Amino acid sequence: MPLTPATLTRHELIGRPVRVVAASNPDLVGIAGEVVMETTRTLSIEGSTAERVWQVPKGDATFEFDLPGGETVTVEGEQLVARPARRTERTGDSKWR
Known about the structure:
By secondary structure, the chain is mainly beta. Helix content is 6%, strand content 37%. The protein has a 6-stranded antiparallel sheet with strand order 4-3-2-1-5-6, with no helix packed on it.
């Protein structure tokens, strides 16, 4: 499946450039870097200088991902809350398949 704005939430996020554009914790807004790890409820984002890795709760944040074609996609974190393996197998509107 090609990586498009519509299919981003079903793709692997590790290695993808990301920014936190909104969050319930204002200290998280503005964090930018690369996704280095993903769990059910968090994204680990390594800053561009690699000095720090932030754990950002998915459900409480809004993210902007940069796609290879230069597009930027905004995703509500609630759409990403799931085990990564389950989230990437989903198709259509069903929660699990």
